[in-house]
């Protein structure tokens, strides 16, 4: 495998029409930051390049809805996104934006070079046009009925109800999202990048030369290549974006997918100026793209084809894309507000950036979609960060202050248990390095936590507190080893939890740290002072976690209510038919779940004349059926008795169906006597 002098790391550019959430952090930015920090600790030359993607239709739609300019939108969200990344310790060397002058110039020059080389083809096609607005409609500016599932409000590029990718012309009864008018078909001409021209070279580069790529990345690329690549438009009819730098292309801008990845280049130029070629064109530089799975095609096929067409740039060495992170067993959705927004997390859990970084890494969707739950977040903090990592460091330092006044004790002859834990720690550190080299951050984190586990077990097995009176020299050796493990942990956890690592370094008096310190047990000099210990992590109680769960449940309820509509009316019935139904009010004397049934509740009702038993399939809507005791409920009194689960039911409790599918028994609004008729 080729050795490189330096590494250029890029991260997918988040779209500046909203804040970023935990899915973004887990899929792209924490892994990229872990890798960049790891390489820096190894002393390697590395740049971490990021920035906001600020062009495209969704931004213009949001601006139109709010009555502001697209620039207002991107200025607002670029700041929110940039600040969130900084607070979470994402160590970008530069975080730029695609609305900058440097980017506009760089993207224009890139397009013009390809245009002058004849790398584009021009094609005329029919597209939807809004005559009232006087403009062609981008896919997101067209809504209608999905031809696959029939859902109303599907966009011209995708139905969010069923997830099917669409063309705007596929929609049934399409409407302009700008004016609401019915669009017409009109001719327009655009520039296309003929991806099919690069098919053979891409197949060799990916399928033969990069078999080491992650299976999810390699597999998706192979699927696209097997289907055969087609020309892809690089321009659009839009008034927000970088104008196509060709005479006669008035009203056309660079398609956002074309201009956005060039942002990696322009942001590098903003950082290092003319020295950017060392990072983009020198064969001793390798480039790594960190992205989510929705960007695999763009970064493995489309952008490389652009770079091939130019002919002077390096191609990416690896694209370790992650899958998606779900939230509480549901897909994260910005439109449904089903997300944990980073700026809100920082408000609700101040000072706990490392906790989220740790949990998202431990649950990283590296090869398949994974799930974030608030209960798991709490459990990992309390059971791992507090009870394992924090506990070990605190025990070691408290014991040192108790017995050696906060100074690193001398290490006399090492025994079998000391040598065993030192070997275990060194092995885990080496394993973590290997996993990081192969972009397996979740497993690397597990190895790091194994070091803390080993430290805890070492203290538990050696029991220095029992030896102090009889063998203080032995206690000194034990605590020296324990403190050296703490120093190893400060280095090992720096890529994952940088705030904790810095805090631990301060307590231990460690200066500049490097990765080659790992596995060594002379990191703290004999007699060196360590600070008074404090807890690295705090236990998270139930209340804040329950508040987050409640917020999500309230969001789900609001979404269901917003999309809820009553069931269609049943077929007409006569007054005579209705008169046959005898609906009465009864008082619930007892109510309990029927054994061996998930759905049935058994009611004992006072119907004004006698007591009767009624079974009702509403158990899943009432966790505690005793809350119904004493209530007056409406029931159908003249149903023929029928047996269920061996119990005879003498009527039917009347319930209403809520938007979320739960059932609520129907009760009179004022007290009435049992047996009163409803009519």
Description:
- This protein has 679 residues and is α+β, with helices and mostly antiparallel strands.
- Helix content is 41%, strand content 17%.
- Among the domains are: 6-113 and 233-322, HUPs (Rossmann fold), CATH 3.40.50.620; 372-517, Orthogonal Bundle (Isoleucyl-tRNA Synthetase, Domain 1); 575-678, OB fold (Dihydrolipoamide Acetyltransferase, E2P).
- Helix 13 runs antiparallel to helix 14 (441-462) and helix 14 runs antiparallel to helix 16 (472-492).
- The radius of gyration is 32 Å and the shape is flat.
- The model has no long low-confidence stretch (mean pLDDT 93).
Can you tag this structure with a few keywords?
alpha+beta; Rossmann fold; Isoleucyl-tRNA Synthetase, Domain 1; OB fold (Dihydrolipoamide Acetyltransferase, E2P); 6-stranded antiparallel sheet; 4-stranded parallel sheet; 19 helices
Question: Topology of this protein?
Answer:
Layout: E1 6-11, H1 22-41, E2 45-52, H2 57-66, H3 70-87, E3 94-97, H4 101-116, E4 121-130, E5 135-136, E6 142-145, E7 154-155, E8 172-176, E9 184-193, H5 199-208, H6 215-227, E10 232-233, E11 235-237, E12 252-254, H7 256-272, H8 276-280, E13 285-290, H9 296-310, E14 325-327, E15 330-331, H10 342-348, H11 353-362, E16 370-372, H12 374-404, H13 416-437, H14 441-462, H15 464-467, H16 472-492, H17 498-508, H18 542-563, H19 575-579, E17 583-593, E18 601-606, E19 611-616, E20 632-636, E21 642-644, E22 647-649, E23 652-653, E24 655-657, E25 663-665, E26 677-678
Parallel strand pairs: 1-2, 1-13, 2-3, 14-16
Antiparallel strand pairs: 4-5, 4-9, 6-7, 6-8, 9-10, 11-12, 14-15, 17-18, 17-20, 17-26, 18-19, 20-23, 21-22, 24-25
Helix pairs in contact: 2-3, 4-7, 5-6, 6-9, 12-14, 12-16, 13-14, 13-16, 14-16, 16-17
């Amino acid at each position: 495998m080729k050795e490189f002098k330096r590494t250029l790391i890029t991260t997918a550019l988040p779209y500046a029409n909203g804040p970023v959430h935990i899915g973004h952090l887990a899929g792209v930015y924490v892994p990229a930051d872990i890798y960049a920090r790891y390489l820096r600790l190894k002393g390697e030359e590395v740049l971490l390049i990021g920035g906001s993607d600020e062009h495209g239709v969704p931004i213009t739609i949001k601006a139109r809805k709010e009555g502001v300019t697209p620039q207002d939108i991107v200025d607002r969200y670029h700041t929110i996104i940039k600040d969130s990344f900084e607070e979470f310790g994402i160590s970008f060397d530069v975080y730029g934006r695609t609305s900058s002058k440097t980017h506009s110039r760089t993207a224009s020059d890139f397009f013009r070079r390809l245009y002058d080389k004849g790398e584009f083809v021009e094609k005329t096609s029919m597209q939807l046009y809004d005559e009232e607005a006087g403009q062609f409609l981008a896919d997101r500016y067209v809504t209608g009925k999905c031809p696959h599932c029939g859902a109303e409000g599907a966009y011209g590029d995708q139905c969010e109800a069923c997830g099917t990718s669409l063309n705007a012309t596929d929609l049934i009864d399409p409407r302009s999202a700008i004016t609401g008018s019915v669009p017409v078909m009109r001719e327009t001409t655009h520039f296309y990048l003929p991806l099919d021209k690069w098919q053979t070279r891409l197949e060799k580069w990916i399928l033969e030369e990069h078999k080491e790529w992650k299976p999810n990345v390699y597999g998706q690329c192979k699927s696209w290549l097997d289907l055969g690549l087609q020309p892809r438009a690089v321009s659009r009819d839009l008034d927000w974006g970088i104008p196509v730098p060709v005479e006669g292309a008035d009203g056309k801008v660079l398609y956002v997918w074309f201009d956005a990845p060039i942002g990696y280049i322009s942001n590098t130029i903003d950082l290092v100026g003319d020295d950017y070629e060392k990072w983009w064109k020198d064969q001793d530089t390798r480039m790594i793209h960190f992205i989510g799975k929705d960007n695999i095609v763009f970064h493995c096929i489309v952008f490389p084809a652009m770079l091939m067409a130019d002919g002077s740039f390096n191609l990416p060495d690896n694209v370790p894309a992650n899958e998606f992170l779900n939230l509480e067993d549901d897909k994260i959705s910005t439109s449904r507000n089903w997300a944990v927004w980073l700026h809100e997390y920082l408000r609700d859990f101040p000072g706990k950036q490392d906790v989220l970084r740790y949990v998202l890494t431990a649950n990283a969707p590296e090869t398949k979609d994974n799930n974030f739950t608030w209960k798991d977040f709490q459990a990992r903090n309390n059971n791992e960060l507090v009870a394992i990592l924090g506990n070990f460091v605190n025990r070691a330092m408290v014991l040192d202050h108790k017995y050696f006044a906060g100074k690193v004790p001398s290490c006399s002859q090492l025994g079998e248990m000391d040598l065993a834990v030192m070997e275990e720690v060194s092995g885990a550190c080496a394993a973590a390095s290997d996993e990081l080299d192969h972009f397996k951050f979740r497993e690397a984190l597990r190895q790091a936590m194994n070091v803390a586990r080993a430290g805890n077990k070492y203290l538990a097995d050696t029991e220095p507190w029992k030896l102090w009176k009889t063998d203080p020299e032995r206690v000194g050796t034990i605590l020296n080893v324990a403190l050296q493990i703490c120093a190893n942990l400060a280095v090992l956890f720096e890529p994952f939890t940088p705030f904790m690592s810095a805090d631990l370094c301060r307590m231990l008096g460690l200066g500049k740290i490097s990765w080659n310190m790992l596995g060594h047990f002379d990191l703290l000099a004999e007699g060196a002072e360590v600070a008074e210990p404090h807890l690295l992590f705090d236990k998270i109680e139930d209340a804040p976690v329950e508040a987050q769960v409640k917020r999500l449940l309230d969001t789900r309820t609001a979404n269901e209510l917003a999309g809820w509509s009553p069931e269609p009316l049943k077929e007409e019935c006569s007054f005579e038919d209705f008169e046959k139904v005898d609906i009465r009010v009864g008082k619930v004397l007892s109510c309990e779940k029927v054994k061996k049934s998930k759905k049935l509740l058994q009611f004992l009702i006072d119907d004004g004349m006698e007591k009767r038993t009624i079974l009702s399939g509403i158990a899943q809507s009432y966790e505690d059926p005793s809350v119904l005791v004493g209530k007056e409920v409406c029931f159908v009194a003249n149903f023929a008795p029928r047996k269920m689960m061996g119990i005879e039911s003498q009527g039917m409790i009347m319930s209403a169906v809520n938007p979320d599918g739960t059932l609520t028994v129907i009760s009179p609004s004022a007290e009435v006597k049992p047996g009163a008729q409803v009519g």
